[in-house]
Amino acid sequence: LVPDIRELIEVDDVMEDDSLRFGPNGGLVFCMEYFANNFNWLEESLGHVEDDYILFDCPGQIELYTHLPVMKQLVEQLQQWEFRVCGVFLVDSQFMVESFKFISGILAALSAMISLEIPQINIMTKMDLLSKKAKKEIEKYLDPDMYSMIEDSTNILKSKMFKKLTKSICGLIDDYGMVRFLPFDRSDEESMNIVLQHIDFTIQYGEDLEFKEPKEYEEDKSALVDEYFQDHVDE
Question: Which segment of the chain is annotated as a signal peptide (predicted)?
């Protein structure tokens, strides 16, 4: 059976408690902190079956990954239980089609990477909902040239007041290549397989699998992503 945190605590119950009087965000934070103080419930629910592949569907509120320790505590606890942990950061592709929104998405992903200190796969979801034109436009964001993006972007990124800050942020992203995104299209089986292969590689899923060479992996990744976009352009 799949563990459900609502068996332990529910945010609606917290919000309805007259002594707490939390709103949606405060209630969620309270629930997550309560969860962090009751990891024994999670351990009992998960059990210890060899070669388990477990997906944790985590809340989307960014504050849980930036200035609160709850998710970091969960990661450390799982590692103590000898789980190989990989973060999968999801961003709606419909949100990422403009330069300034793309930079915001990168910073959110980077914040989670720094906070959790685990390998992380960053994914643009809902590619199947984009038009052909939008898919072609968003391809440049998968391997972005941040300096070119500043020149080609709207006046929002060219604000004189924040010019130096914007350039510094874009330089950090471009120079260190710290965040890259994979496209996820649930209507395309190959797209889903690419994402799964990246996650499997990151956690080296399966003790009987041979270690994969990073160079070969990078070449395969680039070829698979290029193939995905070429298929959709030709349609």
Answer: none
Structure tokens at 120: 């992380």
Range of the domain at 70: 1-83
Kindly state whether residues 60 and 166 are assigned to the same domain: no
Asked if residue 155 and residue 65 are part of one domain, the reply reads no
Same domain for 104 and 202, yes or no, is yes
Helix/strand/coil for 67: coil
Q: What is the pLDDT of residue 170?
A: 81
**Is 72:115 a contact under the CB 8 Å cutoff?**
yes
User: Do 91 and 123 form a contact (C-beta atoms < 8 A)?
Assistant: yes
User: Average pLDDT for residues 153-181, to the nearest whole number?
Assistant: 74
CB count in 10 Å sphere of residue 102:
23
d(CA 50, CA 173): 39
The percentage of the chain sitting over the pLDDT mark of 70, rounded to a whole number, equals 80
Q: Report d(CA 109, CA 62) in Å as an integer.
A: 9
What tokens does 70 get?
Answer: 């709850």
- The residue type of 122 is N
- Candidates 72, 222, 98, 209; CA nearest to 155 is 98
The first and second tokens of residue 21, run together, are 């009087």
On whether both 107 and 163 belong to a single domain, the answer is yes
pTM of the model: 0.79
Dihedral, CA of residue 61, residue 162, residue 147 and residue 153, to nearest 10: 80
**Mean pLDDT across 100-126:** 89
